Description:
It is a single chain. The protein is an alpha/beta fold. It has six helices and eight strands. The chain has a six-stranded mixed beta sheet, with helices on one face. The longest helix is centred in the N-terminal third of the chain and has 17 residues, at 57-73.
Amino acid sequence: MELDDLARALDARVGATVLIDGRSGAGKSTLATRLGALRPAAVVLRLDAVYPGWDGLAWACEHLHREVLAPRAAGRPAAWRAWDWAEDRPADRHAVPADRPLVVEGVGALTARNRALADLGVWVEADDRLRRSRALARDGDTYAPHWERWAAQEADFIARHRPEASADVIARPTRSGFALEAARTSTPADRTTTPAGAIA
């Protein structure tokens, strides 16, 4: 399976949505960036801009469902609220047109409820030591004091929602990009049918 196979999910229908989830440092942002480059018309929504501070994972997951995915599934434009990390307060709202492809990346993107309103779910899996080194290399001293605090929220989210079980594709970072394979854990009860031709 290639990245082009994921990109085809964004062509499946007007306003198609791909959800990319995984623990911190797994490679979600990189995968979303590469996917967005293949489909420049797509809006790329990064949940890092949505979390209301270091304890906001659960809130962002619900906000995504209620304010973005549900309206778009009904054919209506959506909007998400940003968070001003420097000022530690809510920031501007950002519109997401109903007719634009959407790529959402971040911990909390993929749940059974969210997958039911999307076209494809991707879980990015990486070794714990690799994840930590990548995340801290990226965010450095800003993230280091909060690593355990955030990891506990990730663990709670995974226990509650089993995001990998709602994934259609498992992505693993490699030296040259990502190894992609069809998920074997998802079932029709967990997700909607993947669009024809979306993945190989």
